[in-house]
Amino acid sequence: MTQPAQTPTPPGKQMLSEQVYAHLRDAIMRGRYAPGDALKPQDLAREQGVSLAVVREALVRVVGEGLADRLPNRGFAVPAFSDRRWQQLAEARRTIEPVVLRMSVERGDVDWEARVRAAHHRLARTPVYAPGEGEFYTAAWAEAHRLFHRTLLEGCDNPVLLETFDRMWTASELARRWSAHRDPTRDGIGEHRQLEEAALARDADTAAAVLARHLTLTAAALRDGEGAGVNEGEGVGAARS
């Protein structure tokens, strides 16, 4: 039986949905919504001057990125600190990423070494916080951070593993931001420097161990700090993984 053709989304509605999605994602990332806060479609539609259909489309995208939950009979909400997903994601990353880093150290060529050095230099030189960027670290620092971690793994030369990293990174972005506030004294600069040094020294054992510890500390900040507020401090040295 022939399936009816799907009606394409009108360009105007698609543009509005993109705008609402970008606004909502930015608001969650900057801490304008606290963990567990409801995301009410009616309120968002009124604030943004758009239809409920446009808002719901944007909310579905945010849910797909792990930045919100769709709760049965309760609508949408920002995830809670105590959500098991954060520890499950941390476990998955600790299981997979050190193995991929080991492969990367063993297989990476000279060009990979140059990219790792450049990515670390960019990360070290990018300001963590900036006026007007909200409670959490800047978008520029977030991108430099992602690029550094991904570049470390790119020497593995396995697109499937890198796609897995990309999905886990996106899903854990909110937890990284919360974790930074809960452990503002953590030496993230030092941890990233250790990762670069071990990778470029071709010390796969040390690189894998440093990365595993780096990932563990982020998850521990959420687990050990349950019940505390997000805005506990903004130490520039705070680490994220």
Automatic annotation (TrEMBL):
Q: Which SMART domains match?
A: FCD, HTH_GNTR
| Source domain of life | Bacteria
Instruction: Give every HTH gntR-type domain span.
Output: 14-81
Keyword Lyase in annotation? no
List the Pfam families.
FCD, GntR
Q: Any idea which UniProt keywords this protein has? A: DNA-binding, Transcription, Transcription regulation
Question: Molecular function terms in GO for this entry?
Answer: DNA binding; DNA-binding transcription factor activity
Q: Which Gene3D superfamilies match?
A: GntR ligand-binding domain-like, Winged helix-like DNA-binding domain superfamily/Winged helix DNA-binding domain
List each coiled-coil range: none
Which InterPro entries does the annotation name?
GntR_C, TF_FadR/GntR_C, Tscrpt_reg_HTH_GntR, WH-like_DNA-bd_sf, WH_DNA-bd_sf
Q: Do the record's keywords include Aminoacyl-tRNA synthetase?
A: no
* Family annotation (SUPFAM superfamilies): GntR ligand-binding domain-like, Winged helix' DNA-binding domain
Enumerate the PANTHER family for this protein.
GLUCONATE OPERON TRANSCRIPTIONAL REPRESSOR, TRANSCRIPTIONAL REGULATOR, GNTR FAMILY
Per its record, how is this protein called by name?
GntR family transcriptional regulator
Upper classification of the organism: Bacteria, Bacillati, Actinomycetota, Actinomycetes, Kitasatosporales
